[in-house]
Design a protein that fits this description.
Elements lengths: L7 H18 L3 E5 L6 H15 L10 E4 L13 H7 L10 H5 L10 E6 L6 H7 L3 E6 L16 E3 L5 H16 L5 H21 L11 H16 L8 H13 L6 H7 L1 E6 L2 E8 L3 H8 L2 H15 L3 E8 L6 E8 L2 H18 L1 E3 L7 E3 L2 E8 L6 H14 L1
Parallel strand pairs: 1-2, 1-3, 3-4, 4-5, 7-8
Antiparallel strand pairs: 6-7, 8-9, 9-12, 10-12, 11-12
Helix pairs in contact: 2-6, 2-7, 3-9, 6-7, 6-8, 7-8, 10-12, 11-12, 13-14
The protein binds manganese (II) ion.
C-alpha cells in the first residue's frame, strides 16, 4: 500500500525517524543522495525525488525514501542560497537530513541492508562510495556517464542525460507521479504542491540563469520550469510569484557571504585534483579579491589564511577564482600560488601557456605577486571571462602533470 501523503516538513521528519529506526534495528533503508559538492541542484533534487517516490500512488511497497544531503550538518551554513528556497517550501535547514545524522550514530548500517539512488552524479564517491557503491540501484543525472550504475535498475530510474540542471530530469521523471498525486487536491495538497515546486524549480533557475544561459538550457529545463510554475501559481504565493524575482532572491542569497570567515569563503565552493606528484585546489568565490582582503583585515592576514588553507589540504598549488559584477560589469580574477618545488614548475608552466588564452593581466600592478625559495605567486585579472573553473582547472591540472 502506498504511504499517505504529507507536507514536505512532515515527510522530512518521518524520514529522519525512519533513518534512526533503521540504524537501531539494522533494518532496510533506501537513500536518495546528491553529489559531494552538495550544491542547490544536488540537495533539492534528492528531496524532490525522495518525496515523490515515497508517496507515489502506484507504489506497491511502502518504502520511505530518505533524502540524504551529502555534507556534514555544519556545512549547511556555507549554502546561504538554501535559505530563501527552504523558506518558500516551509522548511528550515535543520529539517534536512545530513551525513551527520548518519555518522553521529555509533551503530552501523549493514551494507546489504541499504539501497542508494544517486541524483546529480552517477558514481558514488568518497567515503560512502568505498562502503556502499555495490548497493547503488538507480540514478538520475546530467553529468557524463561513468558506467558505475547497473544498466538494469528495474523499478528504479536510470537516467543520464544532458540538461542544465539535474532537477529538470527529476521533474520529468516524476511528472506522472506528481500528476497522479495531484488528483486529490484540497487546500493542503495545493500548498504542498507549491512548496515542492519551489524546491524543484530553484536549482533550474540558478543553473540556467533563469533559462537565459543558452549554452546550458535544454528543452527539459524549460518544460520542468513550466510544469513546476503551474503548481506555484496555484498556491498561496502564486499571485506574487515571478521567476525573475525568485531567481534574484536565490542569487542574492548565494552571493551574500558577508557572515562567512575567510576560510569558509575558500572552502565553500572548493574542488581539488591530483596530477603528477602533487595536488591542485581551486576555490571559487562569488566576490572579488578586494572583498577577501578586507575580510581578512590586510594583505598579510589574507596570505596567511590562504597558506593555512592550502597546508590543511596538502596542496602544491592553491588557486582562487573570483567572480564579481560591481557596477554591472562581470569580472573574473585568478590567483595562483605554488607552495612547493613541484607546484612552482607547474604554476610557471600554466602562466606561460594560459596567459593569452585566459587574457591574464597583472592585478593592481602585481601587488600580490611574489617569488621566493620554493614558492611562486601571481594574481591576475582574467579578462577572457567566458572561461570558468571548468576550463581553468584542467589547464592547472595539466601543468601539474607535465611539470
Ligand atoms: Mn547539477
Amino acid at each position: 500500500m502506498p504511504l499517505s501523503r504529507t507536507s514536505l516538513h512532515t515527510f522530512l521528519s518521518c524520514a529522519k525517524s525512519a533513518l534512526n529506526h533503521a540504524v537501531k534495528h539494522k533494518s532496510p533503508v533506501t537513500f536518495v543522495i546528491g553529489n559531494e559538492s552538495a550544491d542547490l541542484d544536488s540537495l533539492c533534487s534528492a528531496v524532490v525525488l525522495a518525496y515523490l517516490r515515497s508517496y507515489s500512488p502506484s507504489s506497491k511497497t511502502n518504502t520511505l525514501y530518505i533524502p540524504l544531503s551529502n555534507l556534514p550538518r555544519a556545512d549547511l551554513a556555507l549554502r546561504p542560497e538554501l535559505l530563501p528556497v527552504l523558506k518558500h517550501a516551509n522548511l528550515k535547514p535543520s529539517d534536512l537530513i545530513t551525513l551527520s545524522d548518519l555518522t553521529s550514530s555509533p551503530h552501523y548500517l549493514p551494507v546489504e541492508q541499504t539501497k542508494w539512488i544517486l541524483v546529480d552524479h552517477n558514481a558514488l564517491t568518497g567515503e560512502l562510495g568505498k562502503i556502499y557503491s555495490s548497493r547503488v540501484v538507480g540514478c538520475i543525472d546530467h553529468h557524463d556517464e561513468e558506467d558505475a550504475v547497473p544498466r538494469d535498475c528495474e523499478e528504479e530510474p536510470r537516467i543520464v542525460e544532458k540538461s542544465g540542471s539535474c532537477a529538470s530530469l527529476v521533474v520529468e521523471y516524476c511528472k506522472p507521479i506528481w500528476k497522479e498525486l495531484a488528483k486529490t487536491v484540497g487546500e493542503d495538497e495545493r500548498q504542498w504542491n507549491a512548496e515542492l515546486a519551489r524546491l524543484a524549480i530553484a536549482p533550474i533557475l540558478i543553473d540556467t540563469q533563469n533559462l537565459r544561459d543558452e549554452a546550458k538550457t535544454v528543452e527539459s529545463d524549460m518544460r520542468a520550469v513550466r510544469f513546476a510554475e503551474g503548481w506555484i501559481m496555484a498556491g498561496e504565493e502564486g499571485e506574487s510569484y515571478s521567476s525573475q524575482k525568485y531567481f534574484e532572491e536565490i542569487q542574492n542569497a548565494k552571493e551574500d557571504i558577508r557572515h562567512l570567515g575567510l576560510r569558509d569563503c575558500l572552502r565553500k565552493d572548493y574542488k581539488e585534483w591530483s596530477g603528477g606528484e602533487g595536488k591542485v585546489g581551486v576555490c571559487s568565490v562569488v566576490r572579488d579579491i578586494e572583498f577577501l582582503l578586507e575580510k581578512a583585515g590586510n594583505k598579510e592576514k589574507f596570505l596567511e589564511g590562504v597558506r593555512n588553507f592550502a597546508r590543511e589540504k596538502g596542496l602544491s598549488v592553491v588557486s582562487i577564482m573570483t567572480t564579481s559584477h560591481n557596477d554591472g560589469v562581470f569580472k573574473r580574477e585568478l590567483l595562483v600560488w605554488a607552495l612547493d618545488a613541484n607546484g612552482v614548475g607547474a604554476a610557471q608552466g600554466f602562466a606561460k601557456d594560459s596567459q593569452e588564452r585566459l587574457g591574464l593581466e597583472g592585478w593592481k600592478g602585481g601587488e600580490l605577486d611574489d617569488e621566493e625559495e620554493g614558492e611562486w605567486r601571481r594574481c591576475w585579472y582574467q579578462t577572457k571571462v567566458e572561461n570558468s573553473r571548468k576550463q581553468v582547472a584542467p589547464l592547472l591540472r595539466a601543468s601539474l602533470t607535465s611539470s
